[in-house]
Amino acid sequence: MEFGAFNFLLQLLGVLLAIAVAAYIYLKNVTYNYWKHKGIPQAEPIVPFGSLWDVVKSRKSIAVLMRDLYLEFKDNAVFGFYSFHRPSLVIRDPDLIRFVLTKDFSHFQNRGLYYNEEVDPLSGHLFMLDGAKWKNLRIKFSPTFTSGKMKHMFTTVKECSDSLVQCVTDEVEKNEVIEIKDIMARFTTDVIASVAFGIECNSLKNPEAEFRTLGRKIVKPRPVMNAMLVLCPSLLKMFNIAATNKEVSNFIIKVFKETVDYRTSNNLVRKDFLDLVIQLMNKGFVRGDDDKEPLDKPEIASGKITMLEGAAQVFVFWLAGFETSSSAATHCLYELAINQDIQKRLADEISQILEKFGGITYESLAAMPYLHKVVSETLRKYPSVPILNRDCNQDVQLPGINLSITKGTAIVIPLLGLHMDPEVYPEPDKFDPERFNDDNIARRHRYAYLPFGEGPRICIGELSLVIVEHSQVVRGVNPFLCLLQECGLV
Ligand code: HEM
Q: Which architecture, in CATH terms, is 119-338?
């Protein structure tokens, strides 16, 4: 190497080293003192990973890390955390959680996740969207999740469960050990492909069905993309980078368009999600459970949704629906296998009720209180979504702890931590469905159990139940509008 080139390389190395040292000093002495300066205890950061060192080293998942920190900071209402360079506030106290998720929702509407509708139309879905666009879509979509509409889809669920029984019977005959997680994911994939896309994908019969193969791809960890999503979403935006896997995106858009075109040109109506999405594309609102137009139509009909917006919502129903439900079912079966007494009691209840109703119906499922307790306890121990995210969109004072948080602060609700708190759930590792009898539920803070989240951004699949619980149901009125009213937002 020539002396000049060598000299240049040396200088370059010197500059890079100086930048690295300056960044180190800045992170250590300025960034990582953010919470200390505010008088808030913090999870000790390590340059440049912040509080994520155990996750980077693959020692813990983010859920387990948050649970451990939740337990460690047991005397604090909140504590600070750093996702690499970004300060986040972790909220432990259920009253403050209520403040963020519900009471003061307008300051914490967004999840602050990266999406880019321009290059990645499927990322423009309910889970990701922010602000007015999210609110408008959520108002439109909430009436699609009423119990009346679910009833119409029950036949499909029942058909898929018959295939599930067949699949498990065949597998048990062939093998001593069966992979229940994959079978449950194939079951929920078949249900969602059918009700959301109008497609019989039959992954229970054919494990390599395209929907299932892509589903496996979607839940596969992508360390580089995930790191970029946390570290530099603005860079992704600047270079117009799509976060959704291209193959998945092309497939979903193609299947969605083809099915919508087929139904429209053949005037085919099937009472499923896709039908409701087509209504939103054609009219801007969905008809009520009684097939009448909604009373609050002018408010919710502010514009029809486009084909791509429709595809994005169907995509999120699949994405948010298949893995969450199959993981819940898998954990439930696991606990029933190791707790034979609970299994027996549940089997007895199911047999009795099925005899009474003459088989599995929507109504018979609602008449199984012990099943409800078992599922609730499963979601306590194994919440499918173990942390909730919010983004503070305006400076705000948190009540009771004299802390003002600034616009842009990330908020984390450590859901798994709350569910495993021994002061709220004694012997938290024990699987005990009786934690969900009426007396025990009444004894706990409502925000100490949040498997579906809470407030206006609660899981849309859970919305109808919450509204019933709040006794806010008004016939023909969009349940989501009731929830917004409760938060003082409309
Ligand atoms: C056991 C099953 C499920 C669990 C445990 C679950 C849990 C959750 C949780 C914790 C959230 C975040 C709530 C928050 O931030 O406050 C969420 C959001 C969401 N879920 Fe679910 N979910 C389940 C099934 C489903 C299904 C079947 C669908 C659709 C068919 C669905 C659609 C959604 C959507 C669209 C959102 C985003 C809502 C918004 O931001 O407006 N989920 N879910």
A: Orthogonal Bundle (1.10)
